[in-house]
Amino acid sequence: MSSKKYVYLFEEGNSDMRSLLGGKGANLAEMTRIGLPVPPGFTINTEACNEYLASGYEFPSGVLDQVFSALSQLEAHTGKGFGQKDNPLLVSVRSGAAVSMPGMMDTILNLGLNDETVQGLAQLTGDERFAYDCYRRFIQMFSNVVLEMEHNQFDEIVEKFKRKLSLIFDYEIPASELKQIISEYKLLVRQGKGSDFPQDVKEQLVLAIKAVFNSWNNQRAIVYRRLNKIDDNLGTAVNIQCMAFGNMGQDCGTGVAFTRNPSTGERELYGEFLVNAQGEDVVAGIRTPMPISRLQEELPSVYQQFLDTCQKLENHYRDLQDIEFTVEKGTLYMLQTRNGKRTARASVKAAVDMVSEGLISKNEALLRVDAEQINQLLHRQVDNSVKLDPIAVGLPASPGAACGKVIFDADMAEKLGEAGEKVVLVRSETTPDDIHGIIYAQGVLTSRGGMTSHAAVVARGMGKPCVCGCEAIKIDPPGKCFYIGELIIREGDTITIDGATGRVMLGEVPMIEPTLSDEFEALLRWADETKRLAVRANADTPQDAARAREFGAKGIGLCRTEHMFMAQERLPIVQEMILAESLEEREAALARLLEFQRDDFYGILKAMAPYPVTIRLLDPPLHEFLPDKETLLLEIADLKYQNADHLVIMGKEDLLKKIESLSEANPMLGHRGCRLGLTFPEIYRMQARAVFEAMVQLRQEKVETLAEIEIPLVMDVAEFVYLKGEILDVYEEVKTGSGVELQFVLGTMLELPRACIVADELAAEAEFFSFGTNDLTQTTLGFSRDDAEGKFIPVYLEKKIIKDNPFAVLDRKGVGSLMRIAEEKARGAKKNILMGICGEHGGDPSSVEFCHIIGLDYVSCSPYRIPVARLAAAQAKLNND
Ligand code: ADP
Ligand code: MG
Ligand code: MG
Predict the structure, then answer these.
(1) Cβ–ligand 1 contact at 324 (below 6 Å)
(2) Which residues are catalytic?
(3) Half-sphere exposure (Cβ direction) of 47: Cα atoms closer than 13 Å
(4) How far apart are the C-alpha atoms of 27 and 18, rounded to whole Å?
(5) Of 317, 247, 259, 249, which Cα lies nearest the Cα of 292?
(6) How far apart are CA 423 and CA 555, in angstroms?
(7) What is d(CA 577, CA 393) in angstroms, rounded to the nearest whole number?
(8) Ligand 1 in contact with 281 (CB < 6 A)?
């Protein structure tokens, strides 16, 4: 009976077959194809896995036949026999999904050993210790992965023997003792499972394949997929491959390496090698591996071969590779390659370097770097000009500085982190079970493990600072503390870790703001040459404006004026204005505020000149400027109790009345935005005057400025026309007074659905539009942000009702449709009307792409997001035009 093809020999595949063969299988096939030394093997495809899982754990028909027929080809190839007593073929059974899921799935080595074949292997190799070491490892892995028994029960047995024999390393255990360990292992299995460890090698193989398929749905894998937004229906492939032995002596070993430094991007071989070891020993932190460069002294010919292979791989894949390999008696075997995970810094450097090396084009370099990830480069670092007093130093595993309370377990880290506390997760080493804690921690500190340990890899991927292998710290989990010599650091104490140097400091240390590297500048220059969208900043102060310019902003897309009202010396005047009983009183207060506002606008227009500055007139409801009602009530009670001056008390009571009269049931939809301007025109008149007078002053100083005066929360053209009249009236006054003509435009936010729908009418009057997508999202979805993000958006995400938080990633379908409608109507009425976005979405790569697609002129975001937006805008152009 002919059935579907489920099994592919490595010779039959290639790197384009990822979704069918998984990443590992496709790349093993590719490496085989280009002639690299890969132990022979084959891949059971992901379809087999999906059908197996869908059918309730039944193999689709034909799969096992194809497996055993492929296996007989391996036998023919190697001259060994699977289960053959005198010359046994041993294989590894390895999972491998289409998307790399490091450490998430399980692998079994040395499969094919049993009580008989182990003797054959010993005789054949003349190395009993080796043979029984393989068998011991196999029983342990198989029991763990397939029989689901705890790892540490087995570890304890090994430790017991090492103690008994006063040995330090596993490989020192002699064969005779290994045999006893194996007996104890088998006993453990019999007791735990009620049956003997399987001796039939075919049964071993089938059980192992099932276990890999099943592992697609283990808890760690599910969490990882959720975190990384990986589709649950991809399934995993299974790779079955002849073993290469790294545990046959001092000319053997196992290693992991990156073709470039994954932390800095430097072009140097980077990795670790463990002599006389197998598989995961190198990352498990059992023995400390040696840096890959030492291989040059220890095994020079292998080192040279390895260097050449790395070069070949980089040239072939045209990207930084993350490699796993084994050396058996001086011969190199490649076991895995994939595009290496790297820090943002390394990503930028490698991409730019590869352009100068002629390996990739500028456009490819722009697409290589994850726009969201470069946000990390804009994170704080430890200030190196200050003398620090490190209490310990570990390995610099993931750059950036993190400061927070010491927490020892992942659940607690998650709990506190979720509640907004800053914590540093401190562990002897991390496992995939700790991921949820790492997500919520500022950084990770481990006492064991190298640069390629789990903690290091995961932290780099997430852009979290990490110091690992910090052996000076002795963790006492039950005591909830760690020791460094005499020093005790308890749970809840604050520490700072510096992932760039590996230093650990007590308390909080001074940090500095980030600067851009030469490579980063180069990449962003290319981005500017490529992108169509302009990038502006949301900035309210001259300092923010200056920072935004450093990061490449070409203008301010949103200058909020309310923050200016909050400053300590102004708030009383603002309150006077709000509480004024008459227009006269209000105008007196406004006259004093005018002085301040003129300085504000002078500063910010100057800092951004000659680029445009969008100044939004006052937007929030007035009660935001008044004291909190409860506090005031208490204060009044207190004053009365103290028999304070009657007049003082009356003053406070008046204030209380005013606050009560201003309080609103639903302030987000209340008396705010242009509605303030319409009820108190003198406020907007004052602000407009401040802008114009500042511009007059700057003109006299020969500074060219461009102000865009913006009216918030407009829903109808009549609102706009009325306020436009007021502002133009003020302009006429200033012009007459100063004799200076100014360059300015008047426009509005589009942040209400109705405004989007009537954008054509608005366009007839306005000269620019800026989408305020925070409010537009609130009003379109009917989600009040403060309630939604805390209460039900997490539930919506969990239940997969929405894919992303709509306040972080623009809702293209709903909010986006309104934006499209507005864009078409506005441009229909006024072809070249300037349009941009100034919500927080302006710095989110997916939202930036949408703005590019619908043809906006600019995006505006917080100063620190500007490089992200510049790169995202270039990528949007490259991916869509
Ligand atoms: P993971 O996906 O967790 O990295 P792998 O399938 O890559 O798991 O296996 C882990 C390690 O096991 C490999 O890095 C390699 O050291 C070892 N290994 C796997 N297959 C073989 C093999 N055929 N020969 C020797 N070592 C192997
Ligand atoms: Mg691997
Ligand atoms: Mg708004």
Answers:
(1) yes
(2) 454, 838
(3) 12
(4) 8
(5) 259
(6) 37
(7) 57
(8) no
**DSSP designation for 296:** H
The DSSP call for residue 843 is G
Relative to the CA of 104, which ligand 1 atom is closest?
A: 3
Instruction: Report which protein residue has its CA nearest ligand 1's atom 3.
Output: 103
Separation of CA 543 and ligand 3 centre (Å): 23
pTM of the model: 0.80
Alpha carbon distances (Å) from 310 to 27, 33, 260, 629: 14, 16, 10, 68
The reply to whether ligand 1 has any atom less than 6 angstroms from the CB of 253 is no
Nearest to 574 by CA among 597, 602, 558: 597
For residue 336, the CA-to-ligand 2 centroid distance in Å is 6
Amino acid at 761: E
Ligand 1 centre from 231 Cα, in Å? Answer: 24
User: Which of 31, 92, 272 has most ligand 1 atoms within 8 Å of its beta carbon, as the pocket-test mutant?
Assistant: 92
User: How many CA atoms lie within 13 Å of 390's alpha carbon, on the beta-carbon side?
Assistant: 16
Q: Is the minimum distance from the CB of 243 to ligand 1 under 6 angstroms?
A: yes
23 lines ligand 1 (CB under 6 A): no
Q: For residue 242, which phi and psi values (nearest 5 degrees)?
A: -60, 140
DSSP string over 89-118 = --EEEEEEESS--TTTS-EEEEET--TTHH
Q: C-alpha angle 61/65/70, rounded to 5°?
A: 135
Three-class SS state of 424: strand
301-313 CB burial, b ≥16 within 10 A, e <16: ebbebbeebbeeb
Taking the C-alpha atoms of residue 171 and residue 136, their distance in angstroms, rounded to an integer, is: 12
Q: What is the largest CA-CA distance in the chain?
A: 106
Contact indicator for 711, 748 with CB cutoff of 8 Å: yes
Which of 138, 215, 280 maximizes ligand 1 atoms within 8 Å of its Cβ, making it the mutation to test the pocket?
Answer: 280
**pLDDT digits over 89-125, tens only?**
999 999 999 887 765 567 899 999 999 999 999 999 9
Under 8 Å between Cβ of 89 and 242:
yes
Give the number of other Cβ atoms within 10 Å of residue 375's Cβ: 17
143 Cβ below 6 A of ligand 1 = no
**Which residues, other chains included, contact 599 with Cβ-Cβ below 8 Å and sequence gap of 6+?**
694
Neighbouring residues of 352: CB distance < 8 A, sequence distance ≥ 6: 365, 519, 522, 523
Ligand 1 neighbourhood includes 326 CB (under 6 angstroms) = yes
- Exposed/middle/buried for 623, CB within 10 Å: 0-12, 13-18, 19+? buried
Q: Atom of ligand 1 at shortest distance to CA of 246?
A: 25
Q: 650 to each of 629, 653, 814, how far by Cα in Å? A: 15, 5, 51
**DSSP 8-state symbol, 340:** P
Query: How far is CA 546 from its chain centroid?
Result: 27
372-398 pLDDT per residue, tens = 888 778 767 888 778 889 999 998 888
Whether the ω angle into residue 794 lies within 30 degrees of 0, i.e. cis, is no
Report the phi/psi class of residue 368: left, alpha or beta, with left for phi > 0 and alpha for psi in -120 to 50: alpha
Quote the DSSP letter at residue 249.
S
Kindly state the percentage of the chain with pLDDT values over 90. Answer: 73
Ligand 1 atom closest to 96 (CA): 2
**pLDDT tens digits along 534-561:** 999 999 889 889 989 999 999 999 999 9
